[in-house]
Design goal:
single chain, 319 residues, alpha/beta, 2 domains, 12 helices
Length: 319
């Protein structure tokens, strides 16, 4: 079965470029615009909604919030982690990132390489994708499932946007989703029909959760990522019905490494937060296992270069 890689912001924290990357905490601190509040234990989606409300109260003197986010993220550079995942025998790359680090990596690797943005959606990202082209042929497809910087309106951060996206995802799986492209109306079949007939329209990244072996890397899969958790639960139900035989693997550091960090921590407040994080991660791993997701623990004790190399080699040698 073909492989698909789903990656998050973790790939941007390369030792040679991390000073040019921005963390979620740094982004929040900037867009809070002085109205600082504690975001610990608050879902990211609600933290954004709270920030957005404050931002809009001052909209007469501030740029559009998502345009500010675009400015903060637009300089994300290429790095060797992306070089490695592009070497993997994989046609489709799904990302929750809004930036173009993987695109830059591909274009930098050969001056003859090019790309074509195939996106026609304004707000949602059910079909949003870019083709990477080598020797005048499409060799890879990048799916920016949470929006992209070239269209700030598509950047998905708040609960309102996430909820609307789940509605679109549900329509696609139920076969009630349709869209127009170049004046022609396109319709889809329900996912059960696709699985039984092994026939897929390839309009959306959503199918790849059901018809490919999915490898999730550099992504925390926070419980606020409700669109992806919804898809994983839908997949688990279809497994019960005997319609699915693909695999999903989630690559993480062992919980024992977090436990060791807690033991070494001297600051009581930091230790409390780390204990909560450990409990949250434990519940996450348990839930993923129940959803028929293989949790692959990869040690980072020998440094992050070895950590990432082991992940890349594991994916390369997987079936």
């Amino acid at each position: 079965m073909k492989k698909t890689i789903l990656y998050g912001n973790g790939l941007n924290y390369h030792p040679n470029t991390k000073d040019k990357s921005i963390t979620w905490g740094e982004l929040l601190a900037d867009i809070m615009n002085g109205q600082v509040f504690i975001t610990d234990f608050l879902p990211n989606t609600l933290a954004y909604e709270r920030i957005r409300l404050n931002w809009n109260r001052n909209s007469h003197k501030l740029p559009h919030l998502k345009n500010r986010i675009k400015e903060l993220l637009k300089n994300q550079p290429a790095n060797s982690y992306y070089e490695e995942i592009l070497k993997i025998d994989c046609d489709n790359y799904i990302t929750t990132n809004y930036d173009y680090a993987i695109n830059k990596t591909f274009l930098n690797s050969n001056k003859q390489n090019s790309e074509t943005n195939n996106s026609s959606e304004e707000l949602y990202s059910i079909r949003r994708n870019t083709s990477l082209i080598a020797n005048q042929e499409k060799v890879k497809t990048i799916w920016n499932i949470h929006g992209e910087l070239s269209n700030p309106k598509s950047i998905m951060l708040g609960l309102n946007h996430y909820s609307g996206s789940i509605g679109k995802i549900a329509d696609y799986l139920k076969g009630t989703y349709d869209f127009r492209y170049k004046g022609q109306k396109n319709e889809v079949k329900k996912i059960e029909e696709k699985l039984k007939g092994n026939l897929y329209d390839e309009y959306s990244w959503i199918e790849l959760f059901f018809n490919s072996n999915l490898h999730i890397i550099g992504f925390g899969l926070d419980f606020s990522e409700i669109d992806l958790w919804w898809l994983l639960t839908k997949r688990a139900r279809l497994i019960e019905d005997g319609l699915i035989n693909n695999s999903v693997s989630f690559y993480v550091k062992p919980l024992s490494e977090l436990e060791e960090k807690i033991d070494k921590e001297k600051d009581d407040n930091k230790k409390r937060n780390q204990i909560v994080k450990l409990e949250t991660e434990s519940r996450k791993y348990e839930t993923l296992l129940e959803l028929n997701v293989d949790v692959k623990e990869i040690s980072s004790r020998n440094g992050y270069s070895n950590y990432w190399n082991e992940i890349f080699e594991t994916i390369k040698t997987s079936s």
